[in-house]
Specification:
Mean pLDDT: 92
CATH topology of the largest domain: Rossmann fold
Distance between the termini: 23 Å
Order of helices and strands: EHEEEHEHEHHEEEHEHEHEHEHEHHH
Radius of gyration: 21 Å
Number of helices: 13
Low-confidence stretches: 1-7, 132-137
Amino acid sequence: MATGINTNGTIKVCHLASKHKMNDMRIFEKECKSLAKGGFDVTLIGFGDQPKTETIDGVRCIVLYCPIKNNLELLRKRNKLSLEAALQVDADIYHLHEPELLPIGMKLKRKGKIVIFDSHEYYGWQLRDNIHKIKVIKTPASLMKVLGSLYMRYEKHVCMKIDGVVQVCTMNGVDYFDHRCRKTLFIRNLPSLSDYTRKTPIDYSQGPAVAMIGGITKERGITQLIEAACQAKAKLLLAGAFSPKTYETELKALPAYACVDYKGFLDKNGMVALLEEANIGASTLLNVGQYDKIDTLPTKVYDYMSMQLPVVISDTGFAQKMNDKYHFAICVDPAKPEDIANAIRWIYEHPEQAYEMGNNGRKAIEEEFNWEKESEKLIGFYNELLSKKT
C-alpha cells in the first residue's frame, strides 16, 4: 500500500455522501478505508436514520439526520447540514460523491480547500436519456434533455474551478470530462483480493443457482432475468434495493418470481455469503443509457469473477472484447430471456468448462482487476494535489 504525505494522520480528508449509504462499498469500504490505511485522517459525512458519530476501521463516520419529506426542501436542508458538518471538520481535502453537492464544492474551494468530485456515473448523459434517479421533481420526458444539458453546463462550471474529478471509465472511448475539468483520474470500482475469496468449492449437483447483486431496476434487466431463471429451472439469488418500490410489486406479481430467493440489501459480508451459495453470476443489464457504452464491466461482474463464478453477461462491445481475452463468461442479448436461459443451462450442463471459466475470471482479478492497484492510484492522486498546493 502506498503511503500518504504524512503517516501520522495530519493530512485531513473529508468525504461527503448525502445520498449513498454510509457503508457504501466504493466510498467507505474502498476509498475511505484505503486512505485511512495510507496514513490520512479520514472523516466520512453522510445521512442515516439517527445522528451519531463513530470511528470504524480508522474512519470517523459522522451520520446526520434529516427527516424532511419534500424533495426540494430535503435537498436544500441536506446540503446545509452537509456544509456545516464539513466546515467543522476543517479538512485539507474534500471529496464529494453526489452531483447535488457540487454547490458545496464551490463554497469549500473559495475557502482554499482542495476539492474533488467523484462522478460515480455520467449524470448529464443519464438525465438526457431520462433514466437517472436524481430528479427532485416530476419532470416530463420532453424536458429531460434540456435539464441534462443545463446540468452538464453547471457541472463543467464547477469542475473547471475545483481541483479534480474521479471517474470510473470512458464511454465508447470518450472521456466524459475531457475539457470539462482541470484534472481527472480513472478509478475502477474493483474488488479487493482479501474480501472476495471463495472458501468452498462451487457445487453444480443441486442445480443452477444464479446470483444477481446490485440495484434492482427495469433498466438492469431484472424482469428478463427472472423469466430466464424460471425457464432454466434455476434458483435466482437476488440482492439489492428495488427502485422504484412499485417495481418490487410488479416483479412479485410475475408467476416466474417463484424461482427468486430475495436476500434483501446486503453488506459486504452478506454479499460474499450469497456468492458462496451461487454457482453462476448474472449481469444482464439492458442496452440502454450508459450500460452498453461504458468501457468497464459492471462492478458486480468483477465480484463474480473474484469468487470464481462463470458469468452470464450482456453482449456489449466491451464485454465481448473482455471475454475474448479472458474467457470467463457467456455474452447474451439481455432483452431475450430465452438467450439468458440457454446460457444458464449450458453452464450448468458443462461443469468442467464452467470451472475453467471461473478460474479464468479469478486469475484476471488477481493479475489486473483488483482494488489494491486502484487504491495506489487514488493515494497518488491525493499526494499530487497536495504537492501542488504546498
